Structure formats: C-alpha cells, structure tokens
Amino acid sequence: MAERINIEQLRKHATNNAMLAFMPVNSGSPMQDWCAHLSSNPMRRRELEEFSILGDVVVRIADELELEPLDRVRILSLEYAMKVLSDETDAKEFVRCVKAIASPDAGQFEYEQIASYYYGEIRRRAVSEVLKEMALLGMQLEAVTATLPDREISFEESRMTEQKLCVADQRRVQEVAKNRKPLPPKCPNFDDEMQAVLRRVGRQKVSRMIFDDFADFYLEDGNKSIEELDRDFTTYEQLEQFDENGLIGITMSSCQRSVVVFDLDCEIDANCLPYESRGLSAQLPKLFVGHTLGGNAVQEGRRMINCAGWSMPSRHPFSDQEFEEWLALSLDRIYDGKAIRSARRIYSFGKGSSFEILIDQEINPDFEEMQYAASVLRLLWQRQYSDFHLRSLRHDAYQETYLAIRGTTDTADVADLKKKAYAEFKDQKRLSIKEFTALNTVAKSQEVRLRGQLSREAGQWLRKIEKATHGQLRFLKFGLYNDAEAKMFKRQEKQKLWDAVRAREAELSESVRASRTIQRNLFAQPVTQRLHVHVVPSA
Question: What residue spans define the domains of the chain?
C-alpha cells in the first residue's frame, strides 16, 4: 500500500511521518544517501542499523531463545542500580518506576533512554526527589497505557458444555444424512493434470541454495581449530532470503527468526494529508456508518452531490460511488484556486509551412496536491472495510442495539437489550452470529462499567450496612425489600447492597463465633485424672 501514494508528496506534506525514516532518498550514491539519511534521522539511528525492510514491513532478526527487552538492558539490572544509588530499596524502586514509565511494548532502546536520563537526574539532584517524580509520572502513564481488558473487562473462565440437539434438529440431521448425494466420480485426467502443475510450481520461492559448491570447503575438517570450524559452519548455515524481486539483503541462521516491528501500511493516517484537507478525514467514519451516528453528515453529503435533488435524503451509509463524487466535490471546494497560464502552440500544414499562436489556459496550481490528498483519503476509506466493528455499524439493527447498550445506566436495561439482540439474531435474522457475539461482548463490558457506579442514596445505604449490627442489619434487609427509596435503585446498586449485606453477615457471624470460642476457653472445667485400681483375686 505504501507504493500507492506519492512518496515525494508525503515528504512535502508530512515531514515527520515514521514511514520516511525507512525510505532514504536515492540520488545514485548509496553511501552518501545513507549518511545523509542517518544525519537527518538521529533518533532512529539504532533502528535503521538493526532493522531491515521486507516489502511493506520492517523486521528485526531475533534469536530463538531471546531475552526480554528489559533483561537485555544492563543499566537496569539491580546490581548496576545498587552501584549508582548505594541502597537496595532505592534501586528496586528505581527499576520499578522505569518499568511504569515505559510503554508495555517498549524495546531495549526505550528502556536505555529512560534509565540513562534519570541516572543523570539522580547525579544532579536528590535521590528521593527524583524517585518521587518518577513514581508520579509512572502512575499517570500506567493509567493511560492500561489495556482495555485491564480497565473494564474481568477475565473469567468457564467450562464449555456440550450442546445437545433437540428432537426436531435430530430428525432433520437424520433426513439430511439419508438424502445426501453421493460424491462425484473421480476425474483421472484432471487429477493427473493438477499433479503435473503442482510439480512445476511447487518450488518457485528459493529459501537456500540446493547445490552449494562451497560445502566441501566449509564442512571439511582438515587442520581447522574449533573456532574456525564453528565460524565456517555458521557461515554455511546462513540462508539467503529471497522474494519475487530478488535478494532483499537479510541473512539469518536456522536458529533465528524475523520479528515484525513496524508496518508501513498502518502508518497511513490523517497526518499524511495536507493541512487544508485534514478536516475531511474526520467525516469519513460518519459517512461510512450512516444511520444514527452519521446520518446528518450523510444527508449533508447527498445534498451537496444532488443540489436540486430530494428535500430529505436518506440516512443510509455512502456507497463507494457516492464517496467518489463527494470526494471530488469536497476537494474542488478546498483547492479552488485558478491561474491563467499563457501557452504557445505551433500548427504545421506540411511543406514546411507552420504558424504559432498564443492562447490562455486556466489551470489549478494545486492539482498535484489535490490528487495526493484524494489518494490518501481513498486509502483511509478502503481501510474502514477491514474493521469489523465499523463494517457492522453500517447495518441499522447492529448500530441501534450498540448505541442503546452504550447509552444505558442500568444493568436491567442491558439484560433486556441482550434478549432483544438474541431475538433479532435467532428469529428475525437481522443480525449475523458474529454481530450478535460482538454485541454480547459490548453488553458484558457495559455491565462492568456500570458495576461501580452508585448514586448518593445508595452510597448512604452502603455505609449504613458496613457499620450495622445484627438488629440493624435485619431492619436494613427488610427495607431493601419494602422501602420506596430502595425500590428505585438500579439493578447494579441493589446487587452491590446485597453483596455488602452478605459480607457484613459473614463478618458478624465470624466475630460471634470467635467470642464464643474465647468464652469456652475461659470457663472450661479442669480435667481431673482419676486413678482406677483393679483388684485381681489370687488363685
């Protein structure tokens, strides 16, 4: 996808784009181009030296048994931190704070940069002050970089039960098995032809040389030392990687693997657009989903396309043809500059006779920039089709149910919407199995969101329950059933209060049991030993 946009225009309008760091300018002198590229990207020098470009992705050669990025950073080891800070507790806290500040997918370079910066701060300032600053920054960044499952979805495991068919389904399966058509007869001519084709195209991609003229030299024993044998064997074991365009310049042994660290396709976003047309990228999702979320934007776009059309356009999502028409009109409004250019034309009539005329042409000076913006916007529009959630929002039933779930404030309403979604999937056939599963997941996440929300009145009841005695607890339990204020509570609030009641009952029962045990030990009667004498008569 990176070849479909104009790289020169990208350098002009998005100079800080990450894609350009892995695309040096080719002026015919590789060494000079490489040195100039490294000088213009000093922050990515290490990445450019360690990584390699493989098509539209950037890969890194990694060993099979590779340590974690944190373990490869020597200045973050506990021994080094104790040597600098002279205290084990401060050293442990320093390592923990660096982990909190770094992102979850940080590499070795990021850990080294963070650790070296704060080591320098510790040498200039007090250790306690720097550690406090690191801890506060780490708490803020952990809240930002926390993943969505950690924030709102709790992980629960359940054992899957085997689904049993009803009687009607069993009969249907038996009838289908009876009426099953036999397999078609084999075609020996077609099978032989397919095998011949597979034999010919089976080894199109070369991963290593089958016939190696240097195998005798590298693998022979001779008078080589152990180090020389090891080096020659490693050299012989290396694989030259190829693709359709030839050698790509990556060598790795059989115990290594390539890890994708950067995808050029994913870096094409609104920042690649010129400043004047970046506002159009915000309208693409609304035009794509339509209906309730983007209905106003869709109607406005259709009015712009059909100026003399109907009074109330539909709210259905844009089709690809409508998007192309809307894109052309929107870019014409933005790049509406006109310039008059004088052109010279020469007409010839044969026999060497010709005459020259001057004409005025009206041109758009920003035509190339407009074409570049159109190509980027088309890529962003087509990328939305790969997102399952956005693609499903184009369906009216899915979007209405999703918005209703996200707008609820009571878990009882969430349960009713789950039943409605199941009816639309099972009976009305308005939802597919994938869409129903996605809505079920959204409902679970909404229940987790609402679980911690309590009103002021429910909070007062909760504080009363936490401090209640046995008698007060019985009164509060009666009030939860019959009090008018308690009946107005939402389902998650009632569940929270009943959980607090059960926890308080268990706490009071445990305290009563402990007091009884203490009293029993205090007033226990001493055990007296009695001696029994058994007299046996003599013979």
Answer: 2-64+263-267, 74-148, 215-254, 270-348+367-389, 395-451, 456-521
